[in-house]
Write a structure and sequence with these properties.
The protein has about 475 residues and is mainly α. The chain has helices spanning about 5-30, 45-60, 75-80, 85-90, 100-105, 110-115, 125-135, 145-160, 165-180, 185-200, 220-225, 235-250, 255-270, 275-285, 300-310, 315-325, 340-360, 365-375, 390-395, 405-420, 435-445, 465; strands at about 200-205, 215.
Length: about 475
């Protein structure tokens, strides 16, 4: 850390401010365990809606506080205004009768033993047991215990099964096949199934280091179609986006499949720019894990999509800020116009000050300003070797070092804004003069080339900059 310079001291202060904001968020989540029932609490006192709104606005993806346990249940504003969620609440479609349930319970000891032993001779019994676990979730009598039913499969069955990779693949295939049958069921069933599928792993993370997780890549075949399915409740589609992000970041995928998933996310973001901001936020977060600069002739596709979302003033500020953050996580090369990207981030920081000043009481502002900071810096030590944040990328990648001066200049400009924006007085308007230094820099450094990469359409940052044509 740069302790000897005023800038270094400000970096330390901002880092500590952001850390405390994340801890505040974590304490809100820890004190709200009743909410973590993952869509199974149909009745809730009004005060819990406020807590949910805090969680929506303050979650920081990528850290402990950001591992949200659920999307909003039906009693909250998101689902209450979602026709698909309201329609799904009315569905009752039990796939298991009481006698069938009781009959398999007599086989449960043999089923559990076969899982522990990895006994492929008991294949039929294991398939029946996995189908039983999932079909039980459709029974009305289990409606209030759906998270427990979901965890029965994840922790009891998969968690205690034999570690043989071939056997594990067999189990995961059967879970996915049975889970797909429940995605037209009751709302509560759907959301728990979406959570279950999104969390399936070939290898679990090391509980001490958090490293080593390997998402089960075929879950993308189930989750990707959910994005464009208007009959699915938005919270279900949020979990689909989160699962796709896991697959992109930790799954074993061919580049072709990575590109397909990324273009599916981009299409949904492009086709539905007015969908709920939390849904867009999770799609943008997922897109940041693509791991590709280009694919064939599709050059800088993820960078270009994220940049266009970041500068789109009609989108929600939390979505735009997340796009800036993810620009610090996607791969870049020397053909990417990083000076233009950083100019867009500076313009966004200035605009966030203006918007917060106009609507200071909104619960998402801390998350917005923290995301701007993380565009430049790693979220945690695990991101350091992956070069999370633009500063690390430029420092460690030869073809990006030509952009270092611009990145450092903008980074220093946004630090005071981030410190103020992640502070504890977010019900009050920020000082509008916070953006003055950024304003001056933007006016002095207007780009002449508005394309993210050669041949791509110009980036429309704001009316003033948009008037400048892209260079040939």
């Amino acid at each position: 850390m740069e302790r000897s310079s005023p800038g270094g001291l400000l970096v330390e202060t901002v880092t500590e401010t952001v850390r405390k904001a994340r801890l505040r968020n974590f304490s809100v989540r820890s004190d709200s365990k009743a909410i973590h029932a993952s869509g199974t609490i149909p009745h809730r006192r009004p005060r819990l809606t406020v807590v949910w709104l805090l969680i929506i606005g303050m979650a920081f993806p990528g850290g402990a506080a950001g591992q949200d346990e659920t999307a909003p249940p039906p009693g909250d504003p998101l689902a209450a205004n979602d026709p698909a969620a309201q329609a799904a609440l009315l569905i009752e479609k039990e796939l298991l009768t009481e006698p069938e349930d009781n009959l398999f319970r007599t086989k449960l000891p043999r089923y559990s033993r076969a899982l522990r032993q990895g006994d492929m001779q008991a294949r039929a019994l294991i398939e029946e047991g996995i189908a039983w676990r999932l079909k039980r979730m459709s029974m009305a009598k289990h409606r209030q215990q759906l998270p427990e039913r979901r965890r029965d499969l994840l922790t009891i069955d998969l968690g205690t099964s034999a570690k043989d990779p071939v056997f594990r693949q067999f189990l995961l295939e059967r879970v996915v096949a049975s889970a797909k049958e429940l995605l037209d069921n009751n709302y509560h069933v759907r959301i728990n199934v979406a959570i279950l599928v999104s969390q399936l792993s070939e290898e679990e993370a090391n509980p001490l280091t958090g490293e080593g997780e390997k998402a089960y890549a075929p879950i993308a075949d189930v989750l990707l179609p959910l994005l464009g399915d208007a009959s699915q409740p938005i919270p279900v589609r949020i979990w689909a986006a989160k699962g796709l992000g896991r697959v992109l970041r930790t799954g074993e995928l061919e580049d072709r499949r990575r590109h397909e998933i990324a273009t599916g996310l981009i299409k949904e973001l492009t086709d539905n720019p007015r969908s709920h901001y939390w849904y867009q936020w999770r799609q943008v977060e997922a897109l940041g894990g693509v791991g590709l600069v280009s694919f064939g002739p599709d050059r800088a596709f993820a960078v270009d999509a994220l940049a266009k979302i970041m500068v789109d003033r009609d989108r929600h500020p939390r979505v735009r800020a997340e796009a800036a953050k993810q620009l610090g996580r996607v791969p870049l090369d020397g053909n990417v116009n990083l000076n233009l990207l950083v100019y867009g981030i500076a313009d966004l920081a200035r605009d966030l000050v203006r918007q917060q000043n106009a609507r200071p009481g909104e619960p998402y502002w801390q998350g917005c300003f923290a995301a701007i900071y993380f565009a430049f810096q790693p979220v945690d030590k695990q991101e350091v070797p992956r070069r999370g944040g633009l500063r690390l990328k430029v420092e460690n990648q030869a073809d990006l070092q030509k952009f270092k001066e611009t990145i450092e200049a903008v980074y220093k400009l946004i630090l005071p804004v981030v410190k103020a924006g992640t502070g504890g007085k977010m019900l009050l308007p920020l000082d509008p003069n916070l953006g003055a230094a950024i304003d001056d820099w933007l006016n002095e450094n207007k780009p002449s080339n508005l394309s993210i990469s050669p041949g791509l359409t110009p980036l429309i940052i704001n009316p003033d900059v948009a008037a400048r044509p892209a260079a040939d």
